[in-house]
Amino acid sequence: xxxxxxxxxxxxxxxxxxxxxxxxxxxxxxxxxxxxxxxxxxxxxxxxxxxxxxxxxxxxxxxxxxxxxxxxxxxxxxxxxxxxxxxxxxxxxxxxxxxxxxxxxxxxxxxxxxxxxxxxxxxxxxxxxxxxxxxxxx
Length: 138
What we know:
Protein name: Complex 1 LYR protein domain-containing protein
Radius of gyration: 22 Å
InterPro entries: Complex1_LYR_dom (IPR008011), Complex1_LYR_LYRM7 (IPR045298)
Order of helices and strands: EEHHHH
Domain Complex 1 LYR protein: 46-107
Pfam family, one: Complex1_LYR
Largest sheet: 2 strands, antiparallel
Organism: Physcomitrium patens
Number of helices: 4
Low-confidence stretches: 1-15
Structural class: mainly alpha
Strand content: under 5%
């Protein structure tokens, strides 16, 4: 999404989606028996693709393997693909909006937990050793 500025430069809009659950539902719920416009469906599709891409970008952080030697990144990507395929033919706008909100919340929670844990590990590695002589007990 590029917009032309008066000075002749381009600026990219970073966020053009709804900010709250109410706005998301409002955008996708059919009111008064009106037909759903193709723009509404396109918006849902665009938001779903954006969420899918965000999940794939987030899975890059999970580089370690599980007990079977399979990288968590691959397991998370397979799970994401499966869930998106299961919801592929969903037509109810309220269900679609709920799936999008829950998906975004899950990604945000995963990123926050990951960053907190990474900070803890960094602090633990850089913290001075409380017992400088491990061969002696205090």
